[in-house]
What we know:
Chain A is about 0% helix and about 60% strand. By secondary structure, chain A is mainly beta. In chain A, strands 2, 4, 5, 9, 10 and 11 form a 6-stranded mixed β-sheet that branches. In chain A, strands 1-3-8-7-6 form a 5-stranded antiparallel β-sheet, with no helix packed on it. In chain A, a hairpin with a 2-residue loop joins β6 and β7. Chain B has about 110 residues and is mainly β. Chain B is about 0% helix and about 55% strand. Chain B has strands at about 5, 10-15, 20-25, 30-40, 40-50, 55, 65-70, 75-80, 85-95, 105, 110. In chain B, the strands form 2 sheets. In chain B, strands 2, 4, 5, 6, 9, 10 and 11 form a 7-stranded mixed β-sheet that branches. A 4-stranded antiparallel β-sheet of chain B has the order 1-3-8-7, with no helix packed on it. Chain B is globular and about 40 Å long. The interface of A and B includes residues 31, 88 and 90 of A.
Amino acid sequence: GIQVEQSPPDLILQEGANSTLRCNFSDSVNNLQWFHQNPWGQLINLFYIPSGTKQNGRLSATTVATERYSLLYISSSQTTDSGVYFCAVERNTGTASKLTFGTGTRLQVTL
Amino acid sequence: DVKVTQSSRYLVKRTGEKVFLECVQDMDHENMFWYRQDPGLGLRLIYFSYDVKMKEKGDIPEGYSVSREKKERFSLILESASTNQTSMYLCASVPGGVTYEQYFGPGTRLTVT
Lengths: 111, 113
């Protein structure tokens, strides 16, 4: 099956710093999503990004589908950015689109 | 806003018990999913359903079954709970047809003792 690798696995930042999270995937995919899981376990969609670049406030994402990777940029990080960031790629099985998740990047933002 | 709810946030069960985890979505979505999340493994798909009474196995279906009698409700069943099923369980839903982002419930942390 498709492999999804995220790096780095863990990241500690001081508040105000910028960071880049990477997601590599092993095969062509229909789509890609980035999620943030907060410390209480809730997964929130950040971006739905099959290709190109999107921005939402201090966050932006770029997917280069032909080279099978996506990047999530966090600028001016805040303590509320802490949590786990997951990349998930979408496979179409014919009955429904299924997501394969990476193992995540755990981010801790300190004061 | 889409709302996906799960019946319990925390659950403790004994080995061998039958366990039901319930998920309800309020946006008339066709597709619903059950995942489990374990440290270092990310989220793994257990089962999904693309319509009422329709279901398909995901990547790790062993030891689980599901039920979807109504469109808004998708249940995960552990027929005989075992300690290796201690995990965080997450439900998600998404509209059918063209692909959209998945919406997740808050999760159920199940401990089997």
